[in-house]
Design brief:
356 residues, Isopropylmalate Dehydrogenase, 2 domains, two-stranded antiparallel ribbon, globular, binds 3-isopropylmalic acid, binds manganese (II) ion
Length: 356
């Protein structure tokens, strides 16, 4: 029997609750598909600051590096916002991404027909949207040197080396080959040198993928086009900061940030997390939506463990449960037949997974 070692980072706020539900679903699918998972918990974020005095303890990095994949909930909260930047929960996550080498962040946005009214956009604009943001995750302005803030003057550096652009571009083109064969690369090359290198490099890499159509868009225009006509996009390829912004925007096309998963891959060990944050205001009330985390676990099965049928099972179960009208509170106003708690919906999905 195949056996996988998964590192769990529950983190802060609603993190522990949503990870518990993903584990429930993983246990159901693994017993059905005949593989075994052992889980090890590691600390990161605010809880790690409280317990260990730092947002990313060494044993978390080494534990993750010894695992087959990392499933992560969420971090952060007001309590730690006053700390210096490099001591905050977020810096733990950035350092973990860098330590794992996960340069490719895949953020799919799909619209569930059952929740078509959850979007603030008109149903005819969002129906059928299926796009993937491929965001470069361990370079660009997030990590560029020099950076400083002396109270009078502050700066950051947006820097990309050609190799970094080549490798993320390949991820986007390869993803497009399995989808609708279109890549739209987003930059600001009318103003920034770093974006000119980005654009020239992506154009060069595109020659290796003649079956994929490449277009380019400036970030300002892309932000507008994403709301005007999201269906024009298949794969959006972009850098770290633009990708951070565009993927939040894309999530609102689907209407429910609580449903969208992500995968960070390309490094030593893959990292899988919901795209939403730690939502401390609703923590420990049993109302958080665990579906984004459950779907992140499905991406983990698909992308690194190669358990495609298990991943399909989870995705199908989530669709069925939504079709059945089961809703957590955040989406309860959209055709709910039954409003469920975090753990109720997790159990319903786990139950469906075994029956599909
Ligand atoms: C995300 C988050 C992070 C980012 C923060 C928490 C550092 O917004 O995963 O999109 O900016 O990458
Ligand atoms: Mn973000």
């Amino acid at each position: 029997m195949k056996h996988y070692k998964i590192a769990l980072i529950k983190g802060d706020g609603i993190g522990p609750e949503i990870i518990d539900e993903a584990v429930k679903v993983l246990d159901a699918v693994s017993s059905k598909e005949k593989f075994e998972i052992t889980y090890n918990d590691y600390l990161m974020g605010g809880i790690a600051i409280d317990v260990k005095g730092e947002p990313l303890p060494d044993e978390t990095i080494s534990g993750c590096l010894e695992s087959d994949a990392v499933l992560f909930g969420a971090i952060g909260g007001e309590k730690w916002d006053k700390l210096p930047r490099d001591k905050r929960p977020e810096s733990g996550l950035l350092r973990l991404r860098k330590s794992l080498g996960v340069f490719a962040n895949l953020r799919p946005t799909t619209v569930f027909d059952e929740l078509i009214n959850a979007s603030t956009l008109k149903p005819e604009i969002v129906k059928g949207v299926d796009l993937l943001v491929v965001r470069e995750l361990i370079g660009g302005i997030y990590f560029g040197q020099p950076r400083a803030n002396d109270g009078n003057k502050a700066y950051n550096t947006m820097v990309y080396e050609k190799d970094e652009v080549v490798r993320i571009a390949r991820v986007a083109f390869e993803a497009a080959q399995k989808r609708s064969k279109k890549v739209c690369s987003v930059d600001k090359s009318n103003v920034l040198e770093v974006s000119q290198l980005w654009r020239d490099t992506v154009t060069e890499v595109a020659k290796e993928y003649p079956d994929v159509a490449l277009s380019h868009m400036y970030i300002d225009n892309a932000s507008m086009q994403l709301i005007r006509n999201p269906k024009q996009f298949d794969v959006i390829l972009t850098g770290n900061l633009f990708g951070d912004i565009l993927s939040d925007e894309a999530s609102m096309v689907s209407g429910s940030i609580g449903l969208l998963p992500s995968a960070s891959i390309g490094g030593k060990v893959g990292l899988f997390e919901p795209i939403h944050g730690s939502a401390p205001d609703i923590a420990k009330q049993g109302i958080a939506n665990p579906i984004a985390t459950i779907l992140s676990a499905a991406m983990m099965l698909r992308f690194v463990l190669d358990e495609t049928s298990a991943a399909n099972r989870i995705e199908a179960a989530v669709k069925e449960v939504l079709r059945g009208g089961y809703r957590t509170k955040d989406i309860s106003q959209f055709d709910a037949k039954e409003v469920c708690s975090t753990s109720e919906i997790g159990s319903i999905i786990a139950d469906r997974v075994s029956k599909i």
